[in-house]
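Lab notebook page, bench 4
Experiment: in silico fold of construct C2
Operator: M.H.
Input chain length: 474 residues
Purpose: comparison with the prior construct
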Amino acid sequence: MAESTMLKFVARPQAYPPKRAPDARAQDFQEVVAEFIVARAEEQAGRCSQCGVPYCQVHCPLHNNIPDWLRLTAEGRLEEAYEISNATSSMPEICGRICPQDRLCEGNCVIEKGFGSVTIGAVEKFITDTAWEQGWVRPLRAIADRSGQSVGIIGAGPAGLTAAEMLRIKGYDVHVYDRHDRAGGLLTYGIPGFKLEKPVVERRIARLVEGGIQFHLNFEVGRDATLDELRQRHDAVLVATGVYAARDVAVPGIESAHVVESLDYLIRSNRRGFGDTVPDAAAYDAAGKHVVVVGGGDTAMDCVRTAVRQGAASVKCLYRRDRANMPGSQREVANAEEEGVEFVWLSAPAAVVDGAVLADRMRLGVAGPDGRRAPEPHEAGRFRVEADLVIKALGFDPEDLPGAFAAPDLGVNRWGTLRIDHKTMATSLDGVFAAGDIVRGASLVVWAIRDGRDVAAQMHQYLTAKAGALRAAA
């Protein structure tokens, strides 16, 4: 009997694809991590313990069949591994790049304690990149003709794109509306190329276009059409706008000209990568400047690492809690430190003055209702951080969609996110559904993909019932 290719975690050490040297990668926006070669991917996949209760799968928002495609990869059956991976995820190569695996699948791997988790994200990325190279990614094809019904999707981010693909497969006419000039949402304009190179996103979108999905770009709901007008055009509408209103901090001087919002900064940087002409580019260019980023999430990590690549004289990140309590990925923090970013833990801005940020030392007090210890001022007092450019990366809240869409009856909750029936994912308006961050608040791309998949199933049920009612009335 042939020796099993699996359960090799005792004899085989954990290994990730090698990272480019910090000095080299800080000079460009190419991805940091090299690709696995086939032999290494098979070797690392073979470390999987094939446990009876796969916690990696349980803690994946998409519930990907991770042990199955790890086993197939270890056996050299890459095309089958891709098919299994693709069955539950519309963007596996993107999730493999940007998911915080250390907090999800890999962080819950049963061999993580003592042996180091299976390198799930790297294998997932390798499988699908190989599938694209080998032509295994098939064109998008409808399995039925339901072109008598159409769907309008507001927002071309991961939730909207996933729902568009699922509904197009069902045979509906699908129209996607987005206010940007390129589809992809934050995948295109919010996430830097060193985490997600843009051709990876563009080939996904091209597949959707070739599959018959129609994109209406530079289209702003409320300006180019009201929500009610879109409801009249389509049999169902999905709102998947995400959340884009930047949170602020109330300190003196925060309105200074050298203080910018994180998303404005990242969008302009990504536009430069596309070769676009960028308005007021100098104000958003870190070259030669002392940069201070305020915040501790993944967006803050994107900003500090972008500033390094723009040639900043120095980059510091102020965060009011300590390293152990920051929300951003610890891998991203490590990457940033390797590239020369300085983290100033337990510090909060008190004022922005010409050429500097005045910051207060903080300490962690008692835990709040969410279980996290609340930061409070420390008697160590105030200090000064040199800053020619200050970037606020404090998170995002929803925009006023009822006002923007001229839809006062569109229900929202006290946080401003859209109120839905969590069973049907329907909003307060008949035939209007919602998914992604506009429902759950600022979250992960993988959760947006999950929501897009789920809402497509609910919309299909609604549209099927609607078509049946029309036939019965005819």
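Observations: The chain has a mean pLDDT of 95. The CA atoms of residues 23 and 377 lie 37 Å apart.
Next step: discuss at group meeting.
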